[in-house]
Amino acid sequence: MSDSSNLFNHLKAKILDRTAVVGVIGLGYVGLPFAVEKAKVGFHVIGVEQNPDRADAVNAAQNYIHDVDSDELAAVVANGKLKAICGFDQVSHMDVLVICVPTPLSKNMTPNLSYIESVTQGIAPELRSGQLITLESTTYPGTTDEVIKPVLESSGLTQGKDFFLGHSPERVDPGNQRYTTKNTNKVVGASDPVSLEIATLFYQQTIDHVVPVSSAKAAELVKVFENTFRAVNIALVNELAMLCDRMDLNVWEVLDAANTKPFGIMPFYPGPGVGGHCIPIDPHYLEWKAKEFNFETHFIALAGEINRRMPEFVREKTLRTLNQIGIAPSKAKVLVMGVAYKKDLGDWRESPSIDIVKLLLRDHVSLDYYDPFVPIITIEGHQMQSVDFGNTTLSQYDLVIIATDHSAVDYAHLVEQSTAILDTRGITRKLSDAQSTSYQSKITLL
After folding, report:
1. 229-445 carries CATH number 3.40.50.720
2. What are the record keywords, sorted (predicted)?
3. What residues are labeled active site?
4. Which one of 48, 120, 162, 431 is separated from 310 by 20 to 30 angstroms, measured CA to CA?
5. Domain spanning 3-214: which superfamily?
């Protein structure tokens, strides 16, 4: 039996009997849920987190990720199945390394792989034979083979022979109570058959359904397509919302009626823009990579342009609404409801609400915000604190903008007590009194 077969069989046995040591690099919204899931089924998990505050929090069983069950975190820390460290000195003791670091865009909308590159360079000197490395970070097709593999092979070891390398893109949907790390189908790809087999086996230990594909590049493209699909369809309804505004039509009425068709359509709704870690960013990874092949991805570029335009559209509609009630922007007092990018989360990365706040502040609008999940924000160097909504007199505001539709808000009370509302999420149309004249006189929909 060859040395590579021995390495494969040894790692396979350790994965199957859960004695493999799993390293999870990056304990953020992807890494920490994954680490807890692996630790729950018996793997010894070492989290590598370069933020010492986060590492200390994990070791103290202090939860900072919404989708992680605090009791489950406490249990796996208490029984010694999960611990966090800040460096790469224990990499040689790990059998599987899962990379879950951010992949942001630069200011010029080009991929920033600095986190992936830094992690790979940290791993390479400690790499040993018989290890599996997988990348979960969303990125452009080719990253695993063209960026990670050469650095790892600079150690003198060879993929598919001495170590195994694959890509399995994360499919985390923060706040989703139905689909979790365990029951969300998992795509796995690798560019040699041995790596694909061992990576698939590893993910099968904790995930209900694993979907192997023929290469790491294919797996990378799967994820960016998924997010591009959403970005393009959201852009379509956002553009429809702007058109309906010109035509004096209710876009929500149009979409609700269109979605009654039992085939050939899928519900998407407009909003103040797109935010978070995926939709505003990931499609542009594919757009950038396509240029290498002299190919222009027109839909992606146009979708990004439309979605980035939405905060400005909300600003315009805000100023128009204020004008209709006879108040100049510089004299107006406005309350923004929600600055998180998504309902019932505290994550305000890339949130369109932040852009709306910035634009209105530049118009010299006196502005407060309320968000039960985001107590403090910093905008252009200025710190703002969420108002105490329970003790806030809504009638003091000339306009309330619903920018994020958090479930905890009593929207019926909000409408009753407010002077005027600009609803960018369509949440007020679901109220029982939504069709009453008193409600409609107060509310402007996006």
Report:
1. yes
2. NAD, Oxidoreductase
3. 278
4. 431
5. NAD(P)-binding Rossmann-like Domain (3.40.50.720)
